[in-house]
Amino acid sequence: MSLRALLAGAALALSAALAHAAIDTYTFADDTQRQRFVELTGELRCPKCQNQDIADSNAPIAADLRREIVRLLGEGKSDRQIIDYMVDRYGEFIRYRPALSLRTGLLWFGPALLLLAGAAVVAIRVRRRQAGAAQALSADEQERLARLLDEHRP
Amino acid sequence: MRRWLLLLPLVLFLVLAVFLYRGLFLDPQSLPSALIGKPFPAFQLPAVQGGGMLSRDAFLGRPALVNVWGTWCVACRDEHPVLNTLKAQGVVIYGVNYKDDNAAAQKWLAQFHDPYQLNVADADGSLGVDLGVYGAPETFLIDAKGVVRFKHVGVIDQQVWREQLAGRYQQLLDEAGQ
């Protein structure tokens, strides 16, 4: 690899790292609160740019919601209360991790159910095949098989 | 006897296919509002045109449209003439001037005509957050008691008004008349 390509690659990697996160400055009471902020903003979806969480999004609304979360954290609200606050305003949509309810039951358990169904089908088929193989040839049949093989041997 | 079991995968496939086919025609950008059926959030904010603070009470009494707008919002400019027309037809429209510069908002209203009965200046977007606003323009339809009944995200044009809002607004007027 030439030096130029190497330099270009390094510059690209650097700019990607810089562009990764929207940059704001917030002050937190302690590191636990900062950690909770990181987790909450990673779990809430930006309503404007729907495939980004609000930690990652540069949309003004995401900045507003980050600020709102900082305010709520400062007021001593629990994670649950903050998420409920957002859901009350923006709907279930804002949660990347949907709440467990009757409506989302299929979403949560569907994959596991499908996996179990698949495993059941495999188990049934394997058992049937084993049952088939267990019906071994009788002595007469074995003799006849050997004769047939012998006849056709060149 | 168990022949019909062979049809099960086909049936499952068909059910899934119908679901996914319908999904192709859903608009992922249009989110149902979490506020439908709930009271319009309380607020205490200054009026754009001056003259003191406004609260939720100012929106009560008549069914109305609450239009969230800003001078920075390009689509709001397209929507504005339609709101003027609706006002001329007697529709009650309140404005929420969302994250905007107040002087710019006043200039806009002087320049393009003012279709709003009242205009709330939500400079830092706090009412916007309570309303679940994620882009302007957005328009809420509230009844006489201030309960949110419908929300439209995006520009209101004549077609949107005719197909989605006019009927609902009339229904609210009928309710209020009783």
From TrEMBL, chain B:
Entry's localization field: Cell inner membrane
Record keywords: Cytochrome c-type biogenesis, Disulfide bond, Redox-active center
PROSITE patterns xref list: THIOREDOXIN_1 (PS00194), THIOREDOXIN_2 (PS51352)
Membrane topology: Single-pass membrane protein
Domain Thioredoxin: start-end pairs: 34-178
NCBIfam families (UniProt xref): dsbE (TIGR00385)
Protein family per UniProt: Belongs to the thioredoxin family. DsbE subfamily.
Name by which UniProt lists this protein: DsbE family thiol:disulfide interchange protein
Organism: Pseudomonas typographi
